[in-house]
Amino acid sequence: MDELNVSEQLAALRATFAEIRAVVDVERLRSQVAELSEQAGAPDLWDDAEKAQQVTSALSHRQAELARITGIESRLDDVEVLAELANDEADEAAAAEVRAELASLQKVLGDLEVQTLLGGEFDAHSAVVTIRAGAGGVDASDFAEMLMRMYLRWAEQHGYPTTVLDISYAEEAGIKSTTIEVDAPYAFGTLSVEAGTHRLVRMSPFNSAGKRQTSFAAVEVVPLIEQTDHIDIPESDIRVDVFRSSGPGGQSVNTTDSAVRITHLPTGIVVSCQNEKSQIQNRAAALRVLQSRLLLMRREEENAKKKEIAGNITASWGDQMRSYVLAPYQMVKDLRTEYEVNNPGSVFDGDLDGFIAAGIRWRKGAKP
Question: What is the CATH number of the domain that holds 247?
Fold first, then answer.
């Protein structure tokens, strides 16, 4: 076996990791974990269920972030030892394992490096993703369901817990809309670049003439607010409707009116939740999503005012941000970053990291 020389590659990975470690501030992270662990161990923690949920969620997120950093450090040490063993014993199998692990570490560090660019006010929060079918009839409803599956698969591949808070099925195929919670550190900052209008071009499976069809779907991403970001909503500003949860074709999921729809009267924002069996739980979840949307709306209004004062009222994001073309050729292209791939199937299976990383880097560069 030829000698395995990975010293330069390892040195480059360690240098990147050192920069990331400095930005993340591991000691501060350890301190936060210790403080939150102490709070979580308090005997009276669950006397206030809302505060307890906030503490345990924050602790889980910080622990996951710390484990990710320490895990990478351990992997770098292990791969260095394995490389030495592979050379000492001329072990080709071990050498192949080293190459595979280095490639994996390269990707993990690349993802983590992108995360260090997320310094927005709510970037570290979990996310609420809403997908709505747009123009295009049945194809648009089917496209919305394809996007829902795409984001769920992406989250699954990263080990991020998800909850489908609400889903409205279309009559013939697909969905009219859905709302998904992605509960992971930096989920909002990561997925916020996915917000916008998505376009699908394909030979329609719902068209007997086999004509090419263009359809659209809208993706909205808001941060899941924490207690400290709370917005008070007067009861007089909302209308609460209850109804029975249902699945495809109107099939009853339960026999009680547990699903909740909240309408914010001043803005017209409507939020539904039917994931939980309890009406009280669905109401609390829907209210939290409504608060998230109102919070984001307030921030957007503040930013719009600042831009107007500065004389810059040009939007940074176009209405149509990505095209998925299945016919007459195969391509998915982001129209903001020019990032593209020729394998739509893998993208719809959740392979979004390239698009997300390009979007985050583009946004960082586009901001003044």
Answer: 3.30.160.20
Q: In terms of domains, do 210 and 239 share one?
A: no
Identify whether 161 is preceded by a cis peptide bond (ω within 30 of 0).
no
Q: How many residues does the chain have?
A: 368
- Classify strands 320-325 and 196-203 as parallel, antiparallel or unpaired: parallel
Q: How far is CA 57 from CA 39, 40, 119, 149, 273, in A?
A: 12, 10, 20, 25, 20
Looking at the fold, whether 93 and 208 belong to one and the same domain comes out as no
Count of other CB atoms within 10 angstroms of residue 218: 18
pLDDT in tens, the chain (368 residues): 666 788 889 999 999 898 888 877 888 889 999 999 999 999 988 888 878 888 888 888 888 888 888 899 999 999 999 998 888 888 888 889 999 999 999 988 887 888 788 878 788 888 999 999 998 889 999 999 999 999 999 999 988 999 998 899 998 899 999 999 999 888 999 999 999 899 999 998 887 776 888 999 999 998 887 655 567 788 889 999 888 776 654 444 445 678 899 999 999 999 999 887 788 888 888 888 898 888 878 877 766 654 453 333 232 334 678 999 998 899 999 999 999 999 999 999 999 999 999 999 898 775 54
C-alpha dist (Å) from residue 270 to 15, 285, 290: 48, 13, 8
Residue 210 and residue 142 share a domain: yes
- Distance from C-alpha of 140 to C-alpha of 202, rounded to nearest angstrom: 11
pTM score, whole prediction: 0.68
In this structure, the answer to whether residues 337 and 203 fall within a common structural domain is yes
Partners of residue 212 on adjacent β-strands: 203
32: Cα separation from own chain's centroid: 23
Three-state secondary structure call for residue 279: helix
Question: Domain check: are 152 and 167 in the same one?
Answer: yes
- Which two tokens mark 62? 């910080």
Q: Is residue 1 part of a domain?
A: no
Neighbours of 155 (CB within 10 A): 23
15 is in which domain, residue-wise? 7-115
Pull the structure tokens for residue 181. 């919670």
Domains in the chain, number: 3
| Helix, strand, coil % over all residues of the chain, rounded to 5 | 50, 20, 30
